[in-house]
What we know:
Chain A is built from twelve helices and 20 strands. By secondary structure, chain A is an alpha/beta fold. In chain A, the strands form five sheets. In chain A, strands 8-9-10-14-13-12-11 form a seven-stranded antiparallel β-sheet. Chain A has a five-stranded parallel β-sheet with strand order 4-3-5-6-7, with helices on both faces. A four-stranded mixed β-sheet of chain A has the order 19-18-17-20. Helices cover 83% and strands 0% of the residues of chain B.
Amino acid sequence: MEYWNPFTETLPREKLIELELRSLRDLLAYAKEHAAFYREKYNDINPEDIRSLDDIRRLPFIDKEDLRAAQEGREPFPFGAMLGVPIEEVSAFRQTSGTTGRPVYVPESTESWQWRVEVWCHILWMAGFRETDRVFVPFGYNVYVAFWEGHYAAEKLGCEVVPGGALDTRGRINKMLEVKATALMNTPTYGLHMAESVSNMGIDPRGIGIKRMLCAGEPLPPATRTRLEEVWDAEVYDHIGGTEPCAWAAMCRERTGLHIIEPFFLVEVLDAQTMTREVEEGELGVAAVTPLGRRSFPLIRFNTRDVVKRGPDRCPCGRTSMTITEVTGRTDELCKVRGVLFTPVSVEELIRGEFPEIVEYELLLERKGLMDEITLKVEPHEGIGLEQRADLTKRLSERLKVKTNLTFRISLVKSGELPRYTLKSRRFKDLRGCRR
Amino acid sequence: MNDTIGVKEAGALKEMKKRIDRIEGAAGELKELGDGVPVVEKNVRAILGLTHALKFGISDLVDMMD
């Protein structure tokens, strides 16, 4: 069967929206009754008044700062006013990475966790994962949600899941070869690093039988995805999500965009300036996400700060869910460098798309006197000659200028000098003290 | 019933919803019978967690169409 749930995945859009509005009213009523945050913040809001998508715009947004404020110093520890079930029903603890401040603690009851796993069953099924797959997960699961859901969902699908956490890269590769894995779940960065390591062992990664890869934990620009597909000779799938709302959109076999996982989520893609107007197909907007069936941590209109391009509501795969065609970055990653708006994803796209000789890179943004200076450290393949290094520096400098309208200082470093990341790469470092 | 879902499928959906309700009802009864017994309480909680996923994907759809 092509669909995990053919009834909801092919439902006409107006029916999907009707279903989501019903779920939203239920969630709102539940949240007001069970979570202190909503009793305080939604005091004047009557769930029965939410009858259309326009009505939703009257509900306030929730952002990460709201969640932190609702948890810090509030009982029950550590989930505070966001908790939607009795504390004794919480069976799983997750937290955000804390990259932008104090971590947010996310409680899951058995029911809510199963809801998240069900969302991931949709994602994996859509990407072609089946009972016949042996899925290798080269990642050490921990307090973050990354790969936990994928692991549980793959098991629920009937895949054979091989966790590869407590091993180094060489050990993981050996295990992957030993068990004849057919599928991988990893970060894009680690997917590239593993391919490089496999090659360094004298083995062609394209010949070891990996058929599909689900990437998580980091943005996956099209150029990086294409590169992963080439080096592994595998189908590579992207998704988007976060610890707080769960994964909320993912790729189907067409791999031309991401489907919102409806009716599990009500997603609004809103004009970034006003945050009131839903953007049209082809326009960029900020995603506000409402997970509709998760009661342990109710979230309504969570401002993800993810900037996405809205896609068509039709897809050759037959699914009727709303789509997004690109994830271009995050509103909090956009910064001004010498008066020019800059997003680090543009550099990632350029390097992965046009410079296969670059293995790893790092971006440093510093204040030198009155001026911002942006340095790109690049680590080329081992064995690249002096002449080629000079040519690489020149071409890179020219292409960066065209792509970003900024002048970069290029610094070529030795092989192995830059860090390799397994989760949430930190390739961009803004050292100016404050963001403009 | 909704005309966007075929009659045969709609009938099957309704029957599935009935069975999901029965599972949920039976799990609730089992919980009452085994009140305070960990093996019953904790396994019922797991059953209800899975039932929630089924209700979300199947039962809610039937409720909307009715």
